[in-house]
Please model this.
Amino acid sequence: MSKSTAEIRQAFLDFFHTKGHQIVPSSSLVPNNDPTLLFTNAGMNQFKDVFLGLDNRPYSRATTAQRCVRAGGKHNDLENVGYTARHHTFFEMLGNFSFGDYFKHDAINFAWELLTGKEWFNLPKERLWVTVYATDDEAYDIWNKEIGIPAERIIRIGDNKGAPFASDNFWQMGDTGPCGPCTEIFYDHGDHIWGGPPGSPEEDGDRYIEIWNIVFMQFNRQSDGTMDPLPKPSVDTGMGLERITAVLQHVNSNYDIDLFRSLIKSVAQVTNATDLENKSLRVIADHIRSCSFLICDGVIPSNEGRGYVLRRIIRRAVRHGYMLGAKDTFFYKLVAPLIEVMAEAGEELKRQQDIVEKVLKTEEEQFARTLERGLQLLDEELAQLTDDVLPGETAFRLYDTYGFPLDLTADVCRERNIKVDEKGFEVAMEEQRKRARESSGFGTDYNSLIKVDSRSEFSGYEHDEQQGTITAIFHNGQSVTELKAG
Ligand code: ATP
Ligand code: MG
Ligand code: MG
Ligand code: MG
Model:
């Protein structure tokens, strides 16, 4: 019997605990006091100030299972969901961190021991490939001479894609902040699957899948691009829980692991879908995770900032449900099955289950009123197209009148190999702004324009049954920020 997702999460934490790491709980998806970041996108986020030497902790080694969302913002995987075997909008990142304690040598040796050790994950060594930063001879030699990986399976990736540090093997959290060269570990799922090793033209296939990124944190990137050395070289690693689980459960796609199999069954139940292989089931199973946990962490659907990203994801999910033939509101019904599959990582969600369901239901009901008519209009427009580009004006009308986020329209079009004229959409949006003298930031659909404020800790929801409002409350020094649902 292979290990369950929950057992693998625990095994990771246990392993690093035996190596002297403090087990630290996941932080919120809404970054605490960091206006440069839309959502928590990596395990290191909560330790940013520790890496910068601005914060001290009573430990110099930590390990976490961090909930992450990569939708909107610098790392955006929303468009990948449903199309690759390995991307989610929400996933858990398993990480180990050294704050000026160990560096390359131990970081690499720990990873290897966990992955290949008999009493740990016991993976076949010949299936593992690694990349190092192009000029990082030190990391290369550790892999090659100490660990014994043959040169054929060590790939240098670096400056070849343009400016130094522009490539995949140089990790950065955002446009500013701690960053550094990295070494990544890939798993070869076998030659029955299409794809090539990292750095090859077929690397985007599903055969060689990146499982673990080990970052050697050495610099603090400033907004003007300068790289200041960090006070002490440190280590930050991230391994996708769902990806390592796929490997350990001998399946190629994350969507085939125990957690997703079970969730996908629940999606099929609430939408009355019969074909379990339908892509829309995977999309919905993915989206219920990001949406539920975002709401759980204090994000409410709205027309700007974080709330708009949430709204976009909910509406996409609702559209996929509609395609599957769901007759009624269905999305909120998935919160309960989600809590089940998340085990310990779902405890907070369980506490807030009622409110999360209410927020989702309200948003779905609201959108359901215009969804069908909007899709009809889109169908008619698509039928009349003489080329493969949907005019920006149409996309804008869908946005403005029917509440279709641009990426939802693009999602529908992509299924028929049609592109959306995004420039035209922007122009139409800009014209409307001028007309209405809208304040900036309203309903903007562009990741780059998303503005977020840095709220301090989310303290919970207040639900006023009589008024029908749900209010998210943040303690920000003296002030309390309120957001209303609906
Ligand atoms: P990819 O190249 O596959 O998009 P990445 O290089 O963007 O991954 P990192 O930023 O290095 O990913 O994050 C560390 C690890 O987190 C990855 O090695 C992977 O295991 C996991 N991971 C990253 N993005 C996702 C995602 N969208 N869904 C699931 N797991 C992810
Ligand atoms: Mg990526
Ligand atoms: Mg990568
Ligand atoms: Mg990576």
The CA atoms of residues 144 and 445 lie 46 Å apart. The longest helix spans residues 353-384. The pocket of magnesium ion (ligand 3) is lined by residues 168, 210 (CB under 6 Å). Residues 161-167, 438-450 have pLDDT under 50 and may be disordered.
